[in-house]
Design brief:
- The complex is a heterodimer.
- Chain A is mainly α.
- Chain A folds into two domains: 52 residues, no CATH class; 229 residues, MetI-like fold (Orthogonal Bundle), CATH 1.10.3720.10.
- In chain A, 73% of the residues lie in helices and 4% in strands.
- Chain A is globular.
- Chain B is mainly α.
- Chain B is globular.
- Chain B folds into two domains: 56 residues, no CATH class; 213 residues, Orthogonal Bundle (MetI-like fold).
- Chain B is 69% helix and 0% strand.
- Chain B has 15 helices and no strands.
- The chains are: A mainly alpha, B mainly alpha.
- At the A-B interface, helix 2, helix 4, helix 5, helix 6 and helix 7 of A face helix 1, helix 4, helix 5, helix 6 and helix 9 of B.
- Chain B: One of its GO terms (biological process) is transmembrane transport.
Chain lengths: 305, 281
Amino acid sequence: METSLVKGKSQIKGQSQMTYQRQRKWLGAIFSLPALALLFTFLVLPVILAFIYSFMNYNMLNPDGKTFTGLENYKRLFQDEVFFTALKNTLYFTVLVVPLQCSVALLLAILVNKKVKVASLGRVFFFSPVVTSMVVVAILWTFLYNVDNGIINNTLNFLGINSQPFLLSPNQAMNSIIFMSIWQAAGFQMMIFLAGLKEVPDTLYEAAEIDGANAFQKFLHVTLPSIQHVTGFVLIITTIQAFRLFIQPYVMTNGGPSDSTKTLVFMLYENGFQFRDVGYSSAIAVVFFLVVILVSLILKKVLKQ
Amino acid sequence: MTHRTKKRIGKIGVTIAILVLGFLFISPLLWMIIASLKPETLIFKDMGLAAFIPKEMTFSNYSKILFAENINFFHYMWNSLFSVGMIVLFGTIVNSLCAYALVRLKFPGSDFILVVIIALYVVPFESVLIPLYIVVNKFGWINEFPALVVPFVASAFNIFLFRQFFMGIPRELEEAAQIDGASPLQVFWKIIVPNSKPVFATAAILTFVTHWSDFMWPLIVATDDSIRTVQVGIQYLFTDNNIQYGQIMAALTLTTIPVILIFLFFQRYYVQGITSSGVKG
């Protein structure tokens, strides 16, 4: 020990150091084994299985009767009207939620980034819906949206506006879910934007002010370019999150009325666990997986992340 | 108008905007909490601002939801706390050890494994739902606690989070301990862990909050009332025609309390977790 301290690490060629290095490699493999074994069993293997099952006629109630049927499930999927409705609903939700939610989040972040006394209070208020789980939020808002005694319709009546059906109407159900979802999650994106805004040096704003820029010009020419990287990241995670829409329609509308809130994940769940059709549900899962990967790759490319 | 007054007007404008928007954001939750403290008859009778003022406070909704014979809510809460607690405990150990091995105890193939782990992070959970159910079923875990815990112990994201942090710890610290004859496990336990408290806190909190709100998976693997988690369980409080709104609001509030507590006491780490998810891109 004494000598190794004096000689320094590079000069040690002794037997014990050799064993130590070899031992290190072994231990590295052993230390990472539990996590890797779990990841393989519960993530890698299911991914592979999803692909395999998607080419099979496989019902959960009759697991021994499963047979390979080639592209049969995919053929059925692309002839299924419900699938196109679900795809359309999922895209509609995503296309509306992503820009709206990100804009709201950025606005909130800019507000609470200002040096005013209520900024930290605002941060807590805007973030508060995020600490509430989506299930809790969905149940709560089902009551708020209630036609007869919901607080939203009461407020509308108070303002002289007629009661709205909200979740009971095929035209309003998805929009009601969109509004609630933005309210629930904007605070999350706000926190990420806020971290980005804090990195923008004050000197940039001061320089812009000297050049006579107004608030909007500062936002356009200083803020936005400085947080470009953060914006790209927020857009990608919000998009992926939007594609996964399930809890809201499950709790609030059960996919209805008349399939107006049925999403891809809802359809996947329905076929897998209500109709027990593993093969068909896996085909939906594979298509869903590919759509999510494809969209995030395109976004990455476009945003040059 | 001078520059100063212009600034002041701007500040007043921002303050008003924050307060108005802030009220819009907090009011549904405020209503939930206040309704949970009201007698049933007053919940929908109080309208407008009165809806936000508890004139007759009562905790009877809470005592009913927690202690009434025919309501298993307390049990659901316990199931959630227990299973999520297990995920946090085992997950922290397993993922941090794996990350340490990938950073400092490199073995043949470890760099490739890291790339795979990062790639795995993009797999949306929903796409493996059915095969995962079949795998878990093969283990015989449907309606057993392991189904709620074991599949979520290892986390690609947490491994990556730990890795990023461990890379920043100076090697000299570990080398000094090695020279003193410490084994890699001792180095990990005595040098790495004490120097990585923030990342352990962040990973633990993020894991807790994420799995506390899990819904889809417990919905399909925990169908038995004895193992039902709270997010799924709340649904079963109002299947009757006679809906007790006060009790439901009390249940919703109780379900939210663990995360509120985390937010209040560990706000820094919680927010760090959210923003650090930004490095993974």
